[in-house]
Design a protein that fits this description.
Elements: H1 2-31, E1 36-38, H2 45-59, E2 70-75, H3 81-88, E3 107-109, E4 115-117, E5 135-140, H4 152-168, E6 174-177, H5 181-184, H6 206-216
Parallel strand pairs: 1-4, 2-5, 2-6, 3-5
Antiparallel strand pairs: 3-4
Helix pairs in contact: 1-4, 4-6
């Protein structure tokens, strides 16, 4: 009887300890969460079906959620926070032979550094060929005419957001600019089943990525050549 009671007490202690640690971990990353405004795009059955269609075409698997392993940083090449949101919220786009799921990212950063969350962190979004199955996308308003014009406020917002995401998802090991996808092709992060489906990109520019790398170097994240 004493052995049974001891075993029960030990199990209870382990459970309480594990629960306490999980709560402490959750509180830690919530404490470091930057101000984020939820402004979700349209998420409905049609979008879910298009996600399945897209992922089946590109990954040979019907995926609607991801386990984040990378963060891909973008610029929008124009527009405002409102206009880009209004574009992303559309569920579908003209099929470009890669599917009809509309492009979007999980996050959007305005020029004043305001961070908008457009969809759940772990919901598949179409923002980077070959990487959507495992990557969170951060769009930054700017890059007008291909010029590296992202603001310091956006840089600081990206730094805080990526720190928070990496703490929330220890599975995140890599941060890359959209233009650095060429390097990702030689890693396990890359997955693309459509032959020759690829597009050259220049966003968000090497200066922005260099500044991100320097600021985030203590986290031990992997960056590709600028």
């Amino acid at each position: 009887m004493k052995k049974i009671i001891t075993s029960i007490l030990l199990t209870l202690l382990v459970t309480l300890t594990t629960t306490s640690f999980a709560k402490e971990t959750e509180l830690a990353f919530l404490k470091n969460m930057p101000p984020i405004i939820n402004r979700y795009i349209t998420i409905n059955e049609t979008r879910e079906n298009l996600m399945k269609e897209y992922s089946k075409l590109h990954y040979d698997s019907e995926v609607t959620t991801i386990t984040p392993q990378a963060v891909v940083v973008h610029w929008t090449a124009g527009g405002t926070a409102d206009s880009i949101y209004n574009y992303f919220k559309n569920v579908s786009m003209t099929d470009d032979e890669g599917g009809s799921l509309n492009v979007s990212s999980q996050f959007l950063v305005a020029r004043d550094g305001t961070i908008y969350q457009l969809s759940p962190d772990n919901m598949l979004a179409r923002h980077a060929i070959g990487l959507n199955w495992c990557a969170i996308g951060i769009e930054n308003i700017g890059g007008y005419g291909g010029v590296e014009d992202l603001t310091d406020a956006q840089l600081q917002a990206n730094i805080k957001l990526i720190k928070y995401l990496q703490q929330k998802y220890p599975s995140i090991t890599t941060v890359l600019g959209h233009y650095q996808q060429i390097y990702a092709k030689n890693t396990p992060l890359w997955r693309e089943y459509m032959p020759n489906y690829y597009a050259e990109k220049i966003d968000p520019g090497p200066t922005f990525m260099r500044n991100l790398r320097v600021a985030l170097s203590p986290l031990g994240l992997e960056f590709f050549p600028e």
